[in-house]
Amino acid sequence: MAHLSGDNTKLIQRVRRLKGQLEGIERMLVDGEDCYKILQNTAACRGALNSLTRQLMEEHIVHHIEQEASASEPIKAASRDLREILHSYLK
C-alpha cells in the first residue's frame, strides 16, 4: 500500500467500523433478530464497503495516473472524470 497517500488512519478506521458492523450482523443472526433490521444493517455495510472501495480506487488513480510525470493533460482530465464517475457510482 505504499502508493496510498501517507496516513492510512482513516482507511483503517473505515475497516474497523466495517468489522464492527459485520460483527453486529452476526450477533443479530445468532439472536434471531428481525429480518428487516438485519437487512438494514447489511445495506449499511454495503454502503460503507462501497465508500472504502471508492476511496482506495481514487487513491490508486491519483497515484498511478494523475501524478505520473509523463501523464498529459488530457489523460489527467480523463482521470479526474473517472474519479467523479466512481464517486457517483460507489456512494
From TrEMBL:
The protein in question is named: DNA-binding FrmR family transcriptional regulator
One of its GO biological process terms is: negative regulation of DNA-templated transcription
List the source organism: Haloferula luteola
In terms of superkingdom, the source organism counts as Bacteria
| Upper taxonomic lineage | Bacteria, Pseudomonadati, Verrucomicrobiota, Verrucomicrobiia, Verrucomicrobiales
GO molecular function annotations of the record = DNA binding; metal ion binding
> Which ranges of the sequence are coiled-coil?
none
Query: Which InterPro entries does the entry mention?
Result: Metal_Tscrpt_repr, Metal_Tscrpt_repr_sf
Q: Which UniProt keywords apply?
A: DNA-binding
CDD domains recorded for this chain?
RcnR-FrmR-like_DUF156
Please give one Pfam family short name.
Answer: Trns_repr_metal
Which family does the entry's similarity section mention? Belongs to the FrmR/RcnR family.
